[in-house]
Amino acid sequence: MKVKKILCLLLGLLFVLLSLVGCNGKGEQTAITDGNVSGADSAPEAEFLDIVKDGVAVDVVYSKLATAYELKAANGIVASLKNISGVTSKVKFETENYDSSAVEIVVGNTGYSETKEVSEDIGYSEGIIRIVGSKVIILGSDEESYDTLVQRFAIALNNGKDKDKNIKIATDYTISVSTNELVASLPIVKDMSPSYIKDAGDDSYVLMFSNATLNAVEGYVSSLASHGYSEYASNTIDDNRYYTYTNSDNVVNVAFTGYNKEMKVIVERQTDTALPTRESDNKWTAVSGVTTTISQLGLYYETDGRVVADPQNSNNPYFNGMSYVIRLKDGSFIVIDGGHSKSIDGTRLYNVMKKQAPDPNNIVIAAWFFTHGHSDHTGFFASFCQSYASKVKVEQFVYNFPSVNEIDDADQARADGTVAKYFKNVPVVKAHPGQVFYIRNSKITVLYTNDLWVYGKQELKTANEASLVFTVELEGKKFMVLGDYYDDLGILRSLYSSSTLKSDIMQVSHHGISNCGTKLYPIIAPEWALWPLGTDYVKEYNRVISEHQMNAYMKTMDKNKVFMAKDDIVILTLNNGNITAQVFETDAIYLAS
Prior knowledge:
This protein is α/β, with parallel strands linked by helices. The chain is 26% helix and 27% strand.
């Protein structure tokens, strides 16, 4: 019994001794950790680095090529050290006189081998603090990750301070942060860092890589495949490459644009976007006697009875707007836009589809495209839904509205919210460049979305600059839809060859009133033009035609093939490679025809 008591006493003394190891002589804990730091309960044999000792702090090192947020992080660490210990660190560039034994805090992408070692474990929107040898490596992928790392490191420094304001850090201290799990899930582009990571709205993100090569792009899509993604679709248009890859959770679109050597990686969740219908999945049956048509709907307006020459005058009635209906050979429809915010325009759309549908009690909209969110393109959508959502079947919506951080537009938000309210279970495709939609007897190719805007050079200032641009191929003819695309920067002309842009029918951009220049239309070189300008003032038509040089090309066209919307209904019939046109001056005339 005495032997057992002695053994128990010895074990108790041993436990007390072990519990004191890892504390300094004054009983203060020196291991600096929080819930996300490994080694929170350091073993007795843990080693430490002196960050501040006897009034001297280690140097903070960063690259001469440091980004603004890396420099900000380095200065933030110096400020933390000063605040906690009262000692100012020396901030310096990495030098060729590298000393592996010198204890340093190394911030950002440097040429140090320790930095390169840590960088292999960091993804996009992630950050790491890790001690490698005598170096405290602090490495993030963006400003937000660096801000988080600096905050967490300040906590560690404070926890590692003793009463003399010396600071130690355990050599097994490490911390990882992720500011965007979706972006962080992407495989890394080898030997390239993104110039920016942009919130593209609808929980999608764009990573832009400058000075990219086709080899780098092909290497990256191979990397996607090796990380469990499968190719959904790919497309080559001139010098541009477009890919769509999916896994069980995400959709990744990769766009390489040849003219500026940029690669953009666009990631979103499968729950946030549907995918375009591929040719192999496009199952449909033609209805006898149904021809393919494109209808340009006139746009009613309100006026105070005065003729106002200046359309910018606030008293002037709306004189633009856009609404198109394509009837396909199975009797279903593609709707493009829908403005203004007058219920009579929504009623007109419904009546036109009801007349054109093989079964007026079974109206099917195979796809509804919005080029952008402005009210003269989405305005009557809400009133249409209030009156007719229960009387039509919509199979999908297609649009790409930019983030509200870029374009905070109430009309855009209203259109998006109306889709969610009235068509909760209908798929929404967030369109991206290079995507191809096979819808019945149509092939729709997306040429431009705001994903391809030149963000490195200029901010996106208006939804017009974010307009979808796409072609619709029907019955051997091509219809170019420009929305309100601005050609100031010549992006379309830089992206694509004349043979790609050449179209038989063209929707005149931005109603023919501004910002399309004189160079694009001659390249598209349409035989037919649909002009979404709605007014009965001949004076206004003449002014728009004469004062805007951009419309010079339309002046050279056959006047019988240029159709302003006015209040008319214009119907182009496409059949076996031929186009014929009919113009109805009133709804009553058309509906009675």
